[in-house]
Amino acid sequence: MSAAAQWSEPLIITVAPNGAYKQRADHPAVPITPDTLATTARACLDAGAAMLHMHIRDAQGRHSLDVEGYREAQRAVSKAVGTAMVVQITSEAAGVYRAPAQIAMVEALQPEAVSIGLREIDQPEVGEAGLQRFFTGLALQHTMVQVILYDVADLRRWQALRASGVVPDAPWFLLFVLGRYSAGQTSSPHDLLPFLAAHEGSEPWAVCAFGATENTCITAAAALGGHARVGFENNLLCKDGSPAPDNAALVRQAVEAATALGRPLATAADIRRRFDAR
To answer: Which of 81, 120, 165, 255 has the smallest number of CB atoms closer than 10 Å to its CB?
Structure first.
């Protein structure tokens, strides 16, 4: 896809409303339960998000990759939004899980969409044979996969796996994490430049960012043909530095940026067509 075509492609706004660590003590609108996830999903859909990046918690509010817990949350969200949002579950380790357990959860759940931290599953206990089996299975199932890359080294490793055939051809989606290891875990649009310099081919990409500069970063990404992930997982602040009242407020800021840039908004149907998701 040419740069001009990427720039005019409908902007995918994903909301990441809770993450693995945020608690109600951090913000009263952080959704923890299936019901609060469903309410948040509906509000963010109405605000303009077409995809939900979903974490679930155990009974103590801790990060969980429990398959039945995911199914319960999926049912609640589906009741609230129907098929109008793509529900992307996370496979994040969060210091709790190892790669084989992360892979086993994804294979058991068979979600419509999943995010995968490359460095988390690219581990000796999995090996390249295990990676090939996992990614090939996801491609055959038409699972929409977003590959999380924290730096250019991660991107180069992904490219090597693609070039060697370990990862087969499929409509993969990349997520560039901006400022993950910066001082104070804050982000800058400049953090995007090394990723873009190293990015080869036509794989679509999105960014997520930390702190009140989140909106500036996703605006830069949208202007350069990328997509956006916003929400309380990484940021609790509006672009003026004031506390965001809820996740929907951050989605609305992203919509305003898209409107200013002339980028149309992607719907869930657009996303499914773009990534051949089933």
So the answer is: 165
Q: Tell me the DSSP string of 165-208.
A: TSSPSS--EEEEEPSTTSGGG---GGGHHHHHHH--SS--EEEE
DSSP 8-state assignment for residue 266: P
**Confidence band (pLDDT; 50, 70, 90) for 182?**
low
**Amino acid sitting at position 100:** P
Which residue is it, tokens 């952080």?
Answer: 30
CB 6: neighbour CB atoms within 10 A? 15
Burial category of 17 from C-beta neighbours within 10 Å (exposed 0-12, middle 13-18, buried 19 and up): buried
What are phi and psi for residue 15, nearest 5 degrees?
-110, 130
Taken in order 130, 133, 136, 142, is the CA torsion positive or negative?
negative
**Half-sphere exposure of residue 43, counting CA atoms within 13 Å on the CB side?**
20
pLDDT value for 5: 52
pTM of the model: 0.96
**Extended beta strands in the chain, E state:** 13-15, 51-54, 56-57, 63-64, 86-90, 113-117, 144-149, 173-177, 205-208, 227-230
With b for 16 or more beta-carbon neighbours within 10 A and e for fewer, the 140-150 pattern comes to eeebbbbbbbb
Give the chain's domains with CATH numbers. 3-275 (3.20.20.70)
Lowest mean pLDDT among 50-59, 69-78, 180-189: 180-189
Question: Is 78 in contact with 87 (CB distance < 8 Å)?
Answer: yes
Characterise 9 by phi-psi region: left (phi > 0), alpha (psi -120 to 50), beta (else): beta
For the chain, helix (H) and strand (E) counts, in that order, are 11, 10
Half-sphere exposure in the Cβ direction for 36 (13 Å, CA): 16
Q: What is the DSSP string of 28-58?
A: TT---SHHHHHHHHHHHHHHT--EEEE-EE-
